[in-house]
Amino acid sequence: MASKTPQHCVVWFGRPSAGEVDGVAQAGWRVRVTDAQDGNGIGMRHGDIVVAIADLRRCDAEALPALRNLVADHPWLPWLLLMTDADQVQDPLVQPVLSACTASFTAPFEMKQLSTTLQAIREGRWAVMMPCVAGLTGRSPAIQLVMASILKYAPVDLPVLITGETGTGKELAACALHQQSSRRDRPFAAINCGALPLNLVQSELFGHERGSFTGANARHAGRFEAAAGGTVFLDEVGDLPAEAQTSLLRLLQEGTLERVGSTQPIRPDVRVLAATHVDLEKAVAQGRFREDLYYRLNVLRLRMPALREREDDMELLAQQFLEGFRAQHRCLARGFSRSALQAMRGFAWPGNVRELLNRVQRAAVLAEDALISVADLDLSATDPSPLAGLGRARVEVERETVVACLRASRFNISECARRLKVSRVTVYRLCKKHRLALAEMR
């Protein structure tokens, strides 16, 4: 007996309009509208391509816990989230749903946006859409956590301290926070504190009055004042000299600054984001950074993972960088050989995503075939960096920790999540990441 052709199915938990259902159906999807509380669940045949939509726009408060449980019980599915407004991400019941979703849409949105995402899922490109945060790409749990945190932090007008190794994309995260916030239409000023001349830091950041020092021939508005209404991103904030740290503390505490040579306070109304690759806690202990300023900056914290923690994203990022290069330059390369992909996974990437970008671009220039080779990337297929072993060791420790906790909690997912201080969704993701079959472990 011939098997049935797999169908493309959308299970819509909520109350969509007739036009929305028709729009998805016209795109070639079978649509089933249901309620998270009715107990029907997903209910599709094996082999179907299934997408689940969590529609919170007209969701009853009683339905949200049931929807959250459905998302936790089906972590392998691509979930799409529809919200009324950005404020919903602050709801503690919404946050677990948001962190598990492939993409989120805030009303009003165009059906074309939803159709584009569904098409990407149909074609196997759905990892590129996870979640909708401009400039950030990946399917790994580490980068998904970053994306979910950005969506939570962006609407809240508080300082964010972004940490991580050099080349992990801290400025990209800052841009994403700005673009997702209510300040998106106002200036975004990125300042590398380590690149500012020591004798001009105060003037550059906070401005100066005419005649305040030799060469000050006119009044100068500083970077904070010029970005009024928007966002200022202070990269390598740990390099700020003591005087500038004091001025920044005043701005964060009182919302005011004074130009060099003036006693007139100015209120620029800016949101401050800061980044560092150094240990600020150690800098505070050594007296190189003000403790009170550290606490003012560290209201919300966002850690950017190293590339070695994002093994699932390696091929996706490399191909994205190659496609970006091909869009601007003529080259033969269209993809990567199997040995090249293996070498990329075995390399430690001390320069992180920035190093991957540089190597891919160089390889695209050098490649004399459609597939980029190990030699093109200047990587060794047989002699990976010793640090790669450290990355694998961390993965093994994570796996052993999850296994031990599952056994200690007698495979109760909720209890395991409580002990690990993570969500149930995260436990399911870790099980999937480490290929842990719960039925076989019991």
Automatic annotation (TrEMBL):
Signal peptide interval: none
InterPro entries: AAA+_ATPase, AAA_lid_NorR, Homeodomain-like_sf, HTH_Fis, P-loop_NTPase, Sigma_54_int, Sigma_54_int_dom_ATP-bd_2, Sigma_54_int_dom_CS
Keyword Transcription regulation on entry: yes
Keyword Nucleotide-binding: yes
GO molecular function terms listed in the Swiss-Prot or TrEMBL record: ATP binding; sequence-specific DNA binding
GO biological process assignments: regulation of DNA-templated transcription
Domain Sigma-54 factor interaction: 136-365
One family name in Pfam for this protein: AAA_lid_14
Assigned keywords, A-Z: ATP-binding, DNA-binding, Nucleotide-binding, Transcription, Transcription regulation
Protein name: Sigma-54-dependent Fis family transcriptional regulator
Organism of provenance: Rhodanobacter glycinis
